[in-house]
Amino acid sequence: MYKSNVKETIYPVGILWNMGNKYAREMMLKIAIMQDVIQVRVYDLKNKYDSFVLDCYNGDGEAFQDGYIYEKIRNMKSTDNTKAIVFIVKIDNPTYKINEENEISQCIEARRLKQQIRDEYSSKIDGYFFDNLIHMSDNEEEAKRVLNILTKYEEFVEEDYIRKGYQPIIKRVKVKDNKTYTGLLEKLKGDEER
Predict the structure, then answer these.
(1) 74, 76, 77 from 53: Cα distances, Å
(2) Which residues on adjacent β-strands are paired with residue 12?
(3) 106, burial (CB in 10 Å: exposed 0-12, middle 13-18, buried 19+)
(4) Is 63 part of a structural domain of the chain?
(5) Cα separation of 70 and 188, whole Å?
(6) Is residue 141 in some structural domain?
(7) 177 phi/psi in degrees, rounded to 5
(8) pLDDT tens-digit map of 134-148
(9) How many domains does the chain have?
(10) Distance (Å, rounded) from C-alpha 88 to C-alpha 21?
(11) DSSP letter (8 states) at residue 102
(12) Is residue 82, in this structure, part of any structural domain at all?
């Protein structure tokens, strides 16, 4: 079942997990081609990585079924990289599909973006485990839930970019702006060697 234009513009929250850090710059360029990137924030979560992942999925009962989320975290710990790149995209005139199992509406464009990145990069990731590359909120409730937990981890922010002309969607206390998207991508380029 489909419905369209519940809201004229939405701002889904995406997360590139640590496993894809080698390709972060490339993935962010592709994401920017698919949708307008409004804000990007790079976190180095150090010993709070597990807590961050659990907090991001808190409220998503499906992620906790059969220990799935713990297996995901165990897999992510196969690298010593503790970075997560959180980004916000702008989707105008979104369309939604109602998940028949749980009757939750899901933004088709957000799901398509997430799936396209997974399809293209999962085979490049050593030890790929389903969903350990990218997470994307596909409805407004999930986006709000993730945005609410991000301030808890603000001390771990390394970089922050906000597109000119936009107000921050990820609320912040400290300001660590990059002036340009290209400037941020150049800094991500340095992480490719990790």
Answers:
(1) 11, 10, 12
(2) none
(3) middle
(4) yes
(5) 28
(6) yes
(7) -75, 145
(8) 999 988 989 999 999
(9) 1
(10) 18
(11) T
(12) yes
